[in-house]
Amino acid sequence: MISLALKMLIGNRASCIGVIFGIFLATLLISQQSAIFLGLVARSYRMVTDIPAPNIWVMDPVTESEDKLRSLPFGYVDVVRSTPGVEWAVPLSISRSSIVTPTGGFDLCQLYGIDDASLIGAPAQMLEGNVRDLRRRGAVIVDDYSAMGVLANRLPDGTKVPLKVGDSLEINSHQAVVVGICKITQGFYPQPILFTTYTQVQTFDPSMANKVAFILAKTRPEFNVQQVLKSINAQPGLEALTRDQFTDKVTEFFLKTGILINFGLSVALGIIIGFSIAGQIFYIMTLENIQYYALIKAIGGKRNILMKMVIIQAAVVGVIGFALGIGATVLWGMAIKSTTLAFMFPWQLLLFSAAIVAIICVFTAALSIQKVFRIDPKALLGN
Asked: What is the reported pTM?
C-alpha cells in the first residue's frame, strides 16, 4: 500500500509539486522571519553578550537598555566595590557623539568608555592593533563594519579605503587616533561603535564627567550571587541584575517597540499559506484520486489502510517541502552573513518550524481522510 500511495502521489505531478511548494513557502516564511526576529532581539542585548567578564550589572533603576538609560554618579562605583562579596567593580560609560572622518564624512557614534586600569569591557576579538593601546592619548578602537563602511575614507574618484590603524578621526571636535579594529556583534542601529577609556570619554564628551552608564561587577566564588545582589539593591538609587536578568530586561524593552507584532504577522502569514495552499491542493489531489480509494474500499480495504496511504502522502510532501524551506533559509542566512542584516537560527527554531509544518500536514491529511472515509464505492464503480 505504501508503494501504491507513492505512485498515486507522484502520478499527479502538478498537484504534488503544488503541495510541496506550499509547504516550502510556508516553511521559508516561518523560519526566515523568525530567524530575523531572533537576530534582532540578540542585537538588542549585544552589549551583555560582548562583555562576558562581569556576572552582575549595576544601573539606575529606570535604565532599561543602553538605548534608554540614566547615568549614575561615579561615586557609586566605590559603593559597589565596598559591598561584601564583590571581587571587583569597574565603570562603563556610554556617549552618543558626533564623528567626522578625515575626508569629511559625518555620522553619530556609540562611544564606550571602559576602565582605564583593567580594560574590562574592551572588545574580545581584535582584527588589528592591541587593546592596551587604548591607554594612549586620544586612542579609540573601531568596529570592523564601520571601518569598512560609513567611516571608510573616500578618494576623489569615489573609491572607499577602509579605516585602518593610525588614521585620525574627529569626535565632538576632539582629535582621536585609531589604534585598533575589532569585531563585535552588530548593534540594532547601524551606527559606528567605538571604544576608548573612561578617562578619555570625558575628554571627548565633557558632559560625561564623573558619570557612568553601568557598573560592571564580579562576585567572589565563595559568595552567593543573590545575596550580593540583595546587598547592592539595598542601596538607594541602584539596581543590580545578573547577566540573564539584565538580558531579559533589555529584551522586554525591545519587544515594547511592537516589532514582535510585525514579525508575528509574517509568521502567521506563512502558516496561513501552508494551510490554504498546501491544504487545498492536497485535498484536490485526493479528489482526483478518489476513484482509486473507492476501488480499494470495494475490494475490502480497511479504513486504517486508507488512512495510512493519505498520511504517507502528506508526510512525504511535508518532509520534502520542509527540507527545501529550511535549506533555503540557511542558505539565505549564509548569504547575508557579511551584511548588516540580522539572522539567528538556533536549533529551537528548527523544532518550532517542524512543529508548525507537522500541524499543517496533519490538518491537510485529516481533511482528505474524511473525504476518503465518506466515499461510497458503489456510487463511483457502479457504472
From this structure: 0.82
